[in-house]
Amino acid sequence: MKKVNPILLSAIAASALLGGCVSRGNNPGWEYAPDMYYSKGYEPYSQADSSALNPHGMSMRTPAVGSVAVGKGEFVYPYENNGAGYELAGAELTRPEGLTDPNGRGEYLYGIYCAPCHGATGNNDGAVFQKAANLKPAWKGYTDPYIKTLPVGKIYHTLTYGKNNMGSHASVLAPADRWRVIDYVKQLSMPTASAPVAESADNAATEMESAN
Question: What are the extents of the domains in the chain?
C-alpha cells in the first residue's frame, strides 16, 4: 500500500481551511467573530427593522407628548418661537428668586459666548462685529435705552431661540446660566458712578484754583 505524504495532507487541509475564509460574491466566508462585523448596539428611535413591536422597527418607543426627562424640568419652556411668544415672555417671564451667581459665572460665560460679538463691555465692538459690521444690531450698545428698558423675559427668549442674526444659545447655556448672563448684561447697561464723581472732583479743584 502506497503511503500518503503527510506534508501533502497538511497542505490540502490548510488550503481547505483558508478557502473557507475567502469571500465569493454574496458569500462572506467563515466569520470567526461576527460581532466584530455586525454591531449589536442599537441606536434609539432609528434602528430600522430591529423590533417588530415598535413603529417603524424602532428600538425604543417615542416619549409621550409633554413628557419631561428626569432632572430636566428647568428646561421646560412654555413660550413658542414666534412674535407672540416673544411678547408673552417679556410680559410674564421673570428672573427666578434666590438665583445666585457663584464666582462671577455670568461674567465668565458672557466672555465666552457674548463678547466675541458684543465686546467685553457691550459696545458691539467684538472681533466678529469688527470684521462683519453688517451683522451689528441697530442699537449702539448695552447702554442704549433699548437694552436698558428691554424686559429680561425677552432677553431670555432671545437666548433660548435666537433672534435676527443672533442664533440660539440654548445648547451652550443652561437655563440658570442664561439668567446669570442676563444679570451681567444688565450690569453693563448701567452707567458707572465713578465718572460723575471724578468730574465733580475736577470741577471742585478748578473752582478752588480760580478762587485763589
Answer: 100-202
Main-chain dihedrals φ then ψ at residue 101, nearest 5 degrees:
-125, 80
Give the number of residues written for the chain: 212
* 20-70 pLDDT, tens digit each: 555 556 666 677 776 666 666 666 666 665 667 777 777 777 888 888 888
CA–CA dist 36, 18 (Å, integer) = 19
pTM above 0.70, yes or no: no
Grid coordinates given for 126: 467684538
Asked whether the beta carbons of 128 and 166 are under 8 A apart, the reply is: no
Which of the 8 DSSP states describes residue 75?
G
Q: CB of 55 within 8 A of CB of 47? A: no
Nearest in space to 160 (alpha carbons), one of 79, 39, 105: 79
Which long-range contacts does 85-91 make (Cβ < 8 Å, 24+ apart)? 85/157, 86/154, 86/157, 86/158, 86/163, 87/154, 89/151, 89/153, 89/154, 89/156, 89/157, 90/150, 90/151, 90/153, 90/154, 90/157, 91/151, 91/153
Fold that domain 100-202 belongs to in CATH: Cytochrome Bc1 Complex; Chain D, domain 2 (1.10.760)
Are 188 and 121 a contacting pair, CB within 8 Å? yes
Helix (H, G, I), strand (E, B) or coil at 103: helix
